[in-house]
Amino acid sequence: MDWARYFDERTETMPPVWTRRLEEELLAEQVTRCYERAPFYRRKLAEAGLRPEHVLGVGDLRHLPFTTKEELRASQEAEPPLGDFACADPLEVVRVHLTSGTTGKPLVLGYTKEDLRTSARIGARAFWAAGARPDDTLLHCLSYSFYTGGLADHDALEETGATMVPVGLGQSGRLVELWEDLRPTAVFSTLTYPLYLAEAAQEAGLDPRALGLRKLIVAGEPGGQLAGTRRRLEELWGAKLSETYGLSDVWGTFAGECDEQAGMHFSGQDGVLVELVEPETGEPVGIEPGSTGELVFTHLAREATPVLRFRSRDRAEILGVECPCGRTGFRFRVAGRSDDMFRVRGVNVFPSSIEELLRERGLDRFAVLLDRFPVEPPVEILVEGVDGKEGELAQAVKTRLGFTCVVRAASLPRTEGKAKRLYRLYEGEERPA
Ligand SMILES: [Zn+2]
What φ, ψ does residue 335 adopt, rounded to 5°? Predict the structure, then answer.
């Protein structure tokens, strides 16, 4: 069947000047609403000597102070559950999700009915770009507990018209047994889950390529666009892989890769404004091809728990602002999460870059052990299946990534969820093997 190219053509192909005008209108409303209803924002604006009427255009945004996760957490600790940055009447809040951050206490994020509609619409644009269509039977294989990756993304996928199967985690064996009954054509999961599912199929004597899965839509792990990973998963399943991006502090999913497979298109036009900043200084960086920086988010239409200039700690690279597909949302990739990054004698290292190097050699299970802070070389890296090539791999890490390591072979724990790559032993985390 020939489906329309876009879920929401008007918004997705809007000329940039129109998008800008829409953003400015919504921004003024959002800032006013935050100022009038949330003591948290009234305080922050007052400290910066600002009133809502000072924020008329996107250019004025840079005068607003940043909001950090720590501030939001402190606000919620003082006034549980939603904190004094919440703007909606508690009676209007119909759902809360938790943030899934790996560090610290999660935030509790509220949604009104309108927020849920906005979330689903924005997410549907991303998932449509990533290939979800009404004739798909789509396995949702992320945890349904707490996080936006569960229900919020389910709603957005359902909005595309796809037939959803709410699978969750821990069901691989059962899923393989039910395969013939369900005849799924697409899966939405973490980047590593399709590998795990393929193993479950192979253990049951089935060839993944013969199972009819045509689309792998993946979320939540920096590195999904790495050429090696993509090729391996696509070959394993005979399917096309598309990456999506979301951040639970903001919305569930609000970017997805189109057929061109050249970065994820931002799809949150009427729900969130994106800035790029230099992580160290906070100085704005232009959103243009080749620029890199930390993503900073300002809600444009969030009723319950809005954020203004929220520091995401996600570092992005802008790949383009135009695309043959016609979408006008800029294209980007996420290089890594600052939380996941570590520094060895001045060299910034993202586990995703180690992963890229390993996958080129057909390896994918690894763990980086940091035994002291500040981290000193050599860094210990455990790799499954590396036997005999430890020295060659350590040399490749040194050459390509610029730090000295010791590679050891080890058998690592299997996980269906997000693969854990970094172990901060100096913070009391236990060695995985
Ligand atoms: Zn495109």
Answer: -75, -30
Q: Calculate how far, in angstroms, residue 186's C-alpha sits from the geometric centre of ligand 1.
A: 20
**Alpha carbons 234 and 223: distance in angstroms, whole number:** 15
Distance CA(255)–CA(269), nearest Å, equals 10
pTM: predicted TM-score of the whole model, two decimal places: 0.83
The per-residue pLDDT for 389 is 93
The one-letter code for the residue type at 40 is: F
pLDDT in tens, 374-418: 889 999 999 999 999 999 999 999 998 889 999 999 999 877 666
Question: Near ion ligand 1, which residues have CB within 5 Å?
Answer: 258, 260, 323, 325, 327
Lowest mean per-residue pLDDT among 24-28, 113-117, 356-360, 407-411 = 356-360
Closest among 235, 297, 308, 240 to 272, alpha carbons compared: 297
Mean pLDDT of 310-338: 91
The rounded Å distance from CA 391 to ligand 1 centre is 41
C-alpha of residue 9 to centroid of ligand 1, in Å: 13
CA of 356 to the centre of ligand 1 (A): 24
Q: What is the pLDDT of residues 203-257, one digit of tens each?
A: 999 999 999 999 999 986 655 556 777 888 999 999 999 999 999 999 999 999 9
Strand partners, 380: 369, 406
Distance 216 CA to ligand 1 centre (A): 17
Local structure of residue 318 (DSSP, 8 states): E
Centre of ligand 1 to C-alpha 12, Å, is 10
Angle, CA of 305, 116 and 67, to the nearest 5°: 25
The rounded Å distance from CA 324 to ligand 1 centre is 6
241 Cα to the center of ligand 1, angstroms: 14
